[in-house]
Amino acid sequence: MVTIADVARAAGVSPSTVSYVLSGKRSISETTRRRVHHSIRALGYRPNAGARALASNRTNVLALVVPLRTDLNVPVVMQFVTATVTEARSHDHDVLLLTADEGAEGLQRVVASSLADALIVMDVEAAEPRVPVLRGLGRPAVLIGVPADPQELTCVDLDFTAAGADCVHHLADLGHRDIALIGPSPAVYRRGTSYAGRFLSGFRATAASRAVEAVTLACVPTYDGLRACLDDLLSRPHPVTGLVVHNEAILGPLLSELARRGKRVPQDISVLAVCPPDLAQAQSLPLSSVDIPAVELGRLAVGGGGGPRARRAGTPGRVGPPRGTAPGRPRPGGGGG
Fold first, then answer.
1. 61-65, strands of its sheet edge to edge
2. Residue 163 pairs with which residues in a beta bridge?
3. Cis peptide before 237 (omega within 30 of 0)
4. What is the pLDDT of residue 336?
5. Dihedral sign for Cα atoms in the order 244, 249, 251, 255
6. What string of DSSP letters covers 74-124?
7. What pLDDT score does 24 carry?
8. Element (DSSP H or E) covering residue 65
9. Do residues 309 and 154 touch, judged by C-beta distance below 8 A?
10. Under 8 Å between Cβ of 148 and 183
11. Cα(273)–Cα(224) distance, rounded to whole angstroms?
C-alpha cells in the first residue's frame, strides 16, 4: 500500500509537506504542489479517510436522509438516491444513506458523531418538525421538498402545485369534463407530506377554474385498493374519462384492471401519469406523463440548491408525449365535452 512517506520521497519533500498540500492548511509553492500531486497520481496514493477527516475536520461525506416507509415507492426513491450519489462522487464526496425513521434524533446523532459534512433531507412534510433542528445543527442542509415554512433553509423540488394544474389543463384542453386524481396512499396525506398536498391543491383549484368535474381519491397501492377506486370512479352517473395518476406503484395494475373491465386506453379513458418518464414509458401501454426530475433535483441538492431559498426544478407543464391521453367523449345526453 502506498503511504504518505512514499509520496514524499517521490516528490523530494518531507511527509509534512505532503500533508499540508492535501489539507491546504499552509501555503505551499505552486511548483512543490505540482510535484506532490504528480507523485500522488503516479503512485496511485489515496489518503486515509479517517486521518484526512481528523486533519481537516471534514469527512467528504453527505448524509442523505430518506426514511423508507411502506407507503413510499422504492424504485422512484432510488432514482433520487442514485442521482444524489452520482453527483456527490463527481465532487469527490461519498453518501451516507439513512433510511430509518428517526426524525430529529437521527439528524442530531449524525452531527454529534461527525459522520457527515452536510445533510440532504427527503420525505418532507408541510409542517416539517425537523426544520428547527436543521437550523440549529451548524451544518449545511438542503431539503428535497418544500415545507410550509422553510425558515430560510434551502429547498429544491418540482413545483407540484403547478404540476397538478397542468394535468387538469391538459385533460380539459382535450375536452374532458369528468376527471379524477388517483393519489398516493391515505397515509401519505395523513402525514401531511408536502408534495402530495401541493399537487392536490393545484389539481382542485384548476379543476374549479376550468369548470371540470373532478374527483380525488387516495389509493392504497394494492390490487384491492385499486379495484375499490375504480369501482367508485366507473359507477358514477358521469363516469370519468380522464385519470391523473399520482401513485407510481399502481400504474401497471391500473392498466391491467382497466383492460379486464373492457376499458381501452386512451380510446375509452385517458391516463396521465405523474412519475419519472422512464417509468411511464415502461408500462404495457406507454403513458403520457409529467416528469418528476430526479436527476436534476439530486444535482441541485448536492450543489446546495444555489442558496437559502425554495427553488423549483423541472418544467411541470411538459406533458408528453401524448400516448395515454386522447380527446374526451361527450357526456350521454349531450351534457358537455
1. 94-98, 61-65, 118-121, 141-144, 154-157, 310-312
2. none
3. no
4. 44
5. negative
6. HHHHHHHHHHHHHHHHHTT-EEEEE-S--HHHHHHHHHHTT--SEEEE-S-
7. 72
8. strand 61-65
9. yes
10. no
11. 20
The predicted-structure confidence for 196-218, as pLDDT tens digits, reads as follows 999 999 999 999 999 999 999 99
Cell of residue 137, nine digits = 445543527
User: If you ran DSSP here, which 8-state letter would residue 290 be given?
Assistant: E
The pLDDT, as a whole number, for residue 305 is 57
In this structure, are strands 288-290 and 319-320 parallel, antiparallel, or unpaired?
antiparallel
Q: Report yes or no: 201 and 209 within 8 Å, Cβ to Cβ.
A: no
The rounded distance, in Å, linking the Cα atoms of 240 and 329 is 10
Single-letter residue type at 158: L
Strands (E), 122-275: 141-144, 154-157, 178-183, 213-218, 242-245, 270-274
The residues, ordered by sequence, that sit 6+ positions from 233 with a Cβ below 8 Å of its Cβ are: 180, 215, 217, 239, 240, 243
Rg, the chain, Cα only: 25
Say which residues have a Cβ less than 8 Å from residue 11's Cβ, sequence separation at least 6. 17, 18, 32, 35, 36, 38, 39
Supply 257's cell numbers. Answer: 384492471
Give the integer Cα–Cα distance in Å for 310 and 202: 18
- Residue 331 pLDDT level (bands cut at 50, 70, 90): low
DSSP 110-164: HHHTT--SEEEE-S-BTT-TTHHHHHTSSS-EEEES--S--TT-EEEE--HHHHH
200, amino acid identity: L
98: β partners: 65
Amino acid, res. 189: Y
Q: What are the φ/ψ torsions at residue 189 (nearest 5 degrees)?
A: -70, -40
Q: Of 330, 81, 317, whose CA–CA distance to 202 is shortest?
A: 317
pLDDT reading at 22 higher than 90: no
CA distances from 58 to 4, 6, 49, 119, 301 (A): 19, 24, 10, 13, 19
Hey, is 264 helix, strand or coil?
coil
